Amino acid sequence: MFKSFRYQQWKMLLLTMVCYLFFYTGRHNFGWAARGLSEHFHVPYSTIGWISFSMLIGYAIGQFVNGNLADQFSAKILMPLGAYLSIITNIAISFVETIEWVLVLWALNGFFQSMAWAPGGKLIANWWDASERGKAYSFYTMAAGLSSVITYLICIYILQETQSWRMLFRLPVLILFVTATIYFIFAKDQPSDLGYPNFDENENTDALVKENWKTRYHKVFSNRDFMLVVLAFAFESMARYGFIFWVPVHYLGKNWKQNTKSLWLTFLLPLGMAVGALVFGELSDNFFKRNRVASIRFGMLMSSAIALAIYFTPIHHFLLQGIIMFLAGLFVYGPQSNFWTLCPEMLGHERTGTGIGLMNMFGYLFAALGEPLFGKILDTTGNSANIFLMIVLISLFSALIISWKSLLRIQ
Fold first, then answer.
1. Measured torsion, CA atoms of residues 54, 60, 62, 63, in degrees rounded to the nearest 10
2. Between residues 386 and 314, which one has the greater pLDDT?
3. Residue 240 contacts residue 333 (beta carbons within 8 Å)
């Protein structure tokens, strides 16, 4: 029975990972379409930044709603539903002829994309107990990092073959349709669905019965230490999206068609993110002895240093820039696996989905606020390198907040 249950544990984790592995094809494709959208609709980059803002706001609102729903309804339904709606929205954008429709549809896409992460995290929490949950979340976070890798690869290939921004919204999401359908067919929300006892089913039974959605929100918001973690995560997300969205713009430049080396440099950013998720899972468990705060602080300080290195390093230094890109992804994204692990550790199993959703909501709200600012910096200075000076400060804010004295006791 143990081997059979172990098999099912890994099966559910891998199904969730594979489904989320292709979710970013409907979200991180936008950075690659930014230059084409700006040229086609004759709008400045600040306008493109506001469109990115609209998606992130939609995502933030969706996280606030869907995180709580994940504690109440089926993850195997919420994740595929979000995928299907996102696919429809992406394809619709590829046919529009006004920039206003791009903004409206991209905002809706943000809400639909938010229907995946918290439900997936809840399903993983249902299948993995506290002793191995950190490992499980690091694999889940790695899948999100690899999703960026896959999206970058697909978008680079499409740009080289067709050089059409419309294709960036049509082709990548087709794979998501396949993986979401597989997830819907084979995933199970909890062990009892296959006849196994659920983890924690005899713990906090009264609380689980009494807690409604209002109570869950109240208990999460009233947890002061957790809200400080949420704020630190918000700045981490702003820095992360500063890299994800504006690195392609920075390295594409004006003559990228004649110099594809710069184009392929960007691929190392999401690759570093994927590796970082696993590295920081091990760092926090072993080197930092499960002190998630110390692990997160280390990652954000290093992220600040790497952003400064990008500013001072000329783009034509390909080898050095490649190393920097990989390290940028590793340090800005790796700490996320530690943040997610803090949700069940600080809030308890029964409020994991709500905590993940709330954390992600603030993360994307702050990321949204950063996008128009980054776009304005580029329009005003004409130098995309200045964006990374802002990321230096943002990463330092995250490190400072996570180091607040009341958090130092969290292990």
1. 160
2. 386
3. yes
